[in-house]
Amino acid sequence: MLMQGITYNTAMAVIAGTIMLLVVVFARIVARENHGDLTGWGWAFIALGSFLGITGLHMTLTWPLKQIDGAFCCKVDNITFGEPAAVYGILTFVAGLAILAAQRKADRTDGEVTATVMFRTLRPLLFVAAIIGFGLVLIGIGGMYFGMWRPPDIEPVARLMAGSLIEPLMVMTLYVGSGLAAILSPFVGENKKLAKVVLVITWCIGMLWIFLGFTVFYSHIGFFPQPDGSYI
């Protein structure tokens, strides 16, 4: 059991948000004619997926986590952070491999990976992501209902919002929005309007994840108790 829980969900949040932003940019690039080689995109998703998958698995399997005094979440971080990160990290890693395979196949025929081909290649993964997306929605709602998303008084940035619903609503929005984008993703290739909606949701939620990650990069430094047991 870890005495202080796992606090590298800082980088995990930033990586998750970065993946979501890159998904939007990648989708727009693939939709263009003469978009060029996609190998770099494949490696980017492999790298990001590897980090998120490994850290997610470590958090999932390091159980039980010790509750941190003054926080409301830590014993179940393996469920709320670890499991989704592990699943989506692995899916992102495999998606990167699929992009590389599609590009190699196109290179052998001197062709180009079209948006239709790429969507058909990734669609099975999107269905898996959609199923897990329902879990994200439930995590968001459950965390709000059971009070997990309340800002702890001992965290330097979050305590500024103590007693308000701003942070709980933001975290719930992150999970529900991520889940909604995942649930709708297998159908974006059949409906352009839906595709635009999903891309907007994905971009906005990705930015929010990155913002949250940046704030906790600062605040988690002051999250650990001082030698006298007090907090900064």
TrEMBL record:
<feature type="transmembrane region" description="Helical">
    <location>
        <begin position="197"/>
        <end position="221"/>
    </location>
</feature>
<keyword id="KW-0812">Transmembrane</keyword>
<feature type="transmembrane region" description="Helical">
    <location>
        <begin position="43"/>
        <end position="65"/>
    </location>
</feature>
<feature type="transmembrane region" description="Helical">
    <location>
        <begin position="6"/>
        <end position="31"/>
    </location>
</feature>
<dbReference type="Pfam" id="PF06168">
    <property type="entry name" value="DUF981"/>
</dbReference>
<protein>
    <submittedName>
        <fullName>DUF981 family protein</fullName>
    </submittedName>
</protein>
<feature type="transmembrane region" description="Helical">
    <location>
        <begin position="85"/>
        <end position="103"/>
    </location>
</feature>
<feature type="transmembrane region" description="Helical">
    <location>
        <begin position="169"/>
        <end position="188"/>
    </location>
</feature>
<keyword id="KW-0472">Membrane</keyword>
<dbReference type="InterPro" id="IPR009324">
    <property type="entry name" value="DUF981"/>
</dbReference>
<feature type="transmembrane region" description="Helical">
    <location>
        <begin position="124"/>
        <end position="149"/>
    </location>
</feature>
<keyword id="KW-1133">Transmembrane helix</keyword>
